[in-house]
Amino acid sequence: MLDVAVRNHVKIIGSGERTIMFAHGFGCDQSMWKYVTPSFEQTYRIVLFDYVGSGNSDLTAYASDKYNTLQGYVQDVLDIIEFYGLRDIIFIGHSISSMIGMLASIKRPDYFERLIMIGPSPCYLNEPDVYFGGFEKSDIAELLDMMEMNFAGWASFMAPLAMNQPEVPRLSKELEQSFISADPVIARQFAEVTFFSDHRSDLAAAEVPILILQCSDDSIVPLEVGRYLHRHLKNSTFRLMEAKGHYPHISHPQETVRLIEQYLHTTQQNRSDGEES
What we know:
CATH superfamily of the domain at 4-122 and 199-272: Alpha/Beta hydrolase fold, catalytic domain
Strand order of the largest sheet: 1-3-2-4-5-6-7
CATH class of the domain at 4-122 and 199-272: Alpha Beta
Strand content: 5-15%
Helix content: 40-55%
Radius of gyration: 18 Å
Structural class: alpha/beta
Largest sheet: 7 strands, mixed
Shape: globular
Number of strands: 7
Order of helices and strands: HEEEHEHEHHHHEHEHH
């Protein structure tokens, strides 16, 4: 029998009837939530995990053909939910995990109460006169080549760019260490799958209520992307953060927690008042 707990290094903490599932982004692992989870431990059951190839996951479970699209990661999320019998989940996904969570909710909407997306993007590539994702194909090709030729150099270049907190260099260093701790081959494939993915056509199928948290100056996900998502996701709420960078749960945990709590409190109040079905 597949041991999902070992494969994805699942950790369950906190206490409460409602469940929050935190899903990390590319190049990270579940430890990236450490500045946020303490605020929810007293009132929620918290599910943390590492995608296969990240953190303390079981690297022997990695299969390049399975994880050649986001669907492999989607299936792993559903496996965890089913393994632990979770229901009515509040899924909080960072970056590409926002799309992984959305795709999982499309497959099994009955598992999810709502989604919270931090720095999400359905497509990172620009499409002239149609869509601004922030990157040209040549940009991504250069990043992938750099990962292949000099993984440590890629990590030291990418971390401060993505964190965008020059006044707090330790945060960039922390992210760089996270990047470099990953298996280079797996990380490169995950990067390729992430940056070349295009899930704009799936947005209309998402039914679960969604909060979009967009950073004000994100070098990975332009503001236009957050607004695009808000236009194309029905039942979505958009919040522009004061936080800069692509990792507000690390650089601005207090603002991140406050906006999540406000959203959950408001939606719970609406449900109590009978305004939500």
